[in-house]
Amino acid sequence: MTRRCLLSLGLVSLLSATACGSSGAPTPAARDAAAGVEVLRIQLLAGEDLARLDYRVVDYEKARRSLEQAISLFPESVGASPPLAVADIGTLGPLQQRPSRADRVQFILFTNRGRALRRGTTAVLAIGGTRITGIPVS
Amino acid sequence: MKTPRRTTRILAGCFLIGAAALLCAAPAGAASRSYTVYATDGYVTMADGNKTYMFGFNDTGVMGQIQFPAPLIWANVGDTVNVTLFNLGFKYRPDLTDPHTIHLHGMHVSPYFDGFPEGSFGVPMGASFTYTFVPSHEGSFIYHCHVEAVEHVQMGMYGPLVIYSGAPKKAYGQSYTKEYIWILSELDSRWHHSLEPGAAELNIPEALQTYPPIGAAEWLRVNYRPDYWLINGMGFPDTIRAGAELPIRTYGADGTLSGIQAGITVANGNLPHAGLQQSALLDVLADEPVLVRLINIGYEAHPMHMHGEDYDILASDGNPLPHLQIAGRRGDAAKYEKFTINIASGETYDALVDFDSMHLCRNLSTVPNGGVSPFPDETSPFYDPNGPLFFPAHCHDDYHVTNQGVYPGGMTTLVKVARPVCAP
Question: What is the pLDDT of residues B119-131, one digit of tens each?
Answer without folding.
Answer: 899 999 999 999 9
